[in-house]
Amino acid sequence: MRSEIVEELSEITGLDAGSLTPDATLEGLDIDSLDLVEFKQVVEDRYDLVLERDDFKEVVTIGHALDVVEMARTRRARV
Q1: In whole angstroms, what is the distance from residue 79 CA to residue 75 CA?
Q2: Distance CA 48, CA 21 (A)
Q3: What does the pLDDT look like over 26-78, one tens digit per residue?
Q4: For the whole model, what pTM was predicted?
Q5: Can you tell me the distance from the alpha carbon of 50 to that of 41, in angstroms, rounded to the nearest whole number?
């Protein structure tokens, strides 16, 4: 699922998926808050998840963004 999510982010940002490594920073990739809002909406719709806005406030790297999505999947699985 992580590779699919990276592909989604690649489509939203226009960046090559290969540059979206877990250690890559959002700032370094010029990914802004509007990109993250769009990413959040796409992931919620495609995977039927609820991602909290506050979860993304502290996101600094691609890996952290992917971790936020994984945490949402875990929360959903418990319900």
Answers
A1: 7
A2: 24
A3: 999 999 989 989 999 999 999 999 888 888 888 999 999 999 999 988 887 76
A4: 0.86
A5: 9
